[in-house]
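Open question from group meeting: does this chain pack into something compact, or does most of it stay loose? Before anyone orders reagents, we agreed to write out a predicted structure and look at it together. Recording both the input and the output here so the notebook holds the full record.
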Amino acid sequence: MKYVIIRYNEMKHKENDMKFEMFGYTIEIEKKALTNAQEMPQDLQEALKVIQKYGVTPPPSKKKVESAKRATAIRVKRTKEKIDDAVNLLRLEGKEITPYAVAKTAQISYNTAKKYLKQ
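Structure tokens returned:
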């Protein structure tokens, strides 16, 4: 386990204020007392409250990212094929090719049809 120690105020006496784990690191935030027990900086206190409340999620692994890219590419390919088929069908029927007509024929959303017809 790796340790990251965040220190503030330069005095000899210290009290552990907080300790938690994040991304395989154990983070200790040490509070060092001054003559009048000075407080942690306000922005550091707020950041720690957010971390405690919501936690921290690790970034996705490379494998997950690659899988998501492959899945997206497959969905895009299928959608483009549906749109091409719908456009061809509309041409055969002699109908006007509009995003609405393509969306209805391909059974996809209007916004998707509009997006891919521009390409």
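Observations to bring back to the group:
The longest strand covers residues 14-22.
The first helix runs from residue 42 to 54.
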